[in-house]
Known about the structure:
With about 475 residues, the chain is mainly alpha-helical.
Amino acid sequence: xxxxxxxxxxxxxxxxxxxxxxxxxxxxxxxxxxxxxxxxxxxxxxxxxxxxxxxxxxxxxxxxxxxxxxxxxxxxxxxxxxxxxxxxxxxxxxxxxxxxxxxxxxxxxxxxxxxxxxxxxxxxxxxxxxxxxxxxxxxxxxxxxxxxxxxxxxxxxxxxxxxxxxxxxxxxxxxxxxxxxxxxxxxxxxxxxxxxxxxxxxxxxxxxxxxxxxxxxxxxxxxxxxxxxxxxxxxxxxxxxxxxxxxxxxxxxxxxxxxxxxxxxxxxxxxxxxxxxxxxxxxxxxxxxxxxxxxxxxxxxxxxxxxxxxxxxxxxxxxxxxxxxxxxxxxxxxxxxxxxxxxxxxxxxxxxxxxxxxxxxxxxxxxxxxxxxxxxxxxxxxxxxxxxxxxxxxxxxxxxxxxxxxxxxxxxxxxxxxxxxxxxxxxxxxxxxxxxxxxxxxxxxxxxxxxxxxxxxxxxxxxxxxxxxxxxxxxxxx
Length: 478
């Protein structure tokens, strides 16, 4: 903390806690034998706030809408052993949360485009909520949206396609280039083959085949053979109509044929076609060469599993992560989001919550933990402090909202669903709540009456100006 000239000679930094997420920081003098009433030099008060992201107008809309989902979720009853109906309801609530995240991201992007002064802040915030959606949607797959038989890759492919759009961007640039340079061959453009590779890596073979069909040599034997392999690739789906063992047999037969065609030199005269065929064969060196198109280790993980072990079970996925992490520089290159995603894949709920509490807004941590609590996942993870973990995180989130002039009303409803400490915290917050208007005072009185919290006599006994204002306001309007 930089001191002004007026504060020279003051040898101590003192702190006074404010309301909610605020504190006052100031410099002072504390000699060894200083008496309580000793006068000290004048100093400058510095107000420090944290977790103020929720106070911004666009984010406040997310806070208000998520409050409605939260309150609705608390009214639901779920069995100890989750039934199919319970899982569907929980997934529905999860997707409702994600819908307001998507809406928030779109609003932030529009705001970034419409202003220059705060554009960087809006871009940074939209990036943050995209990370939150990335983590939330993966947690939904692993902890809520269970797949019969435990085959998880089909949902992970949807997850990758939803969050990573490199193929679409390359294709759009390719089409614009073709339109701009009339008469030029599509394959002569730089983005032609990268777009094919990107779609193949995401298992979007229909799109890859359409791009291949633009090639001037598409009718040649090599192109037709590759197109046939892409067309015949077996894809597993729980509703596909055949058993997992039958799928695995068909898939191995198909990949054996891919390998035979590569070894037989069917694509040796066309390097790019051979690269696509080697991806289908699951060749390690070819995947390592695709690291720029995959962008990160978790995209690489899903792409590799698609062509090496498409029937992988959810609990076996963590055995495959390290090889992909090493491609991108090893564990020392992992960032906070990487660690959280890795913890989700490892079913380490404790680490998911711990890492998220450190690096992400309290809004996310409080709501995802509450959802996992209703799904029975905290108890399933055998966390010793599971019963109070949810409540402590909700109380932290309430502390952020209570310091805002309008969000404090939202915070009160969260305290209603904190059975151990919620009532006590509500009393303390209401005692310290600044009451600038009679209307606000009446709201507080009404909240207390609805919850049988404190009567008006108790307010008067407190002897504070805030409560006197409330009593006077109540008398005037009663």
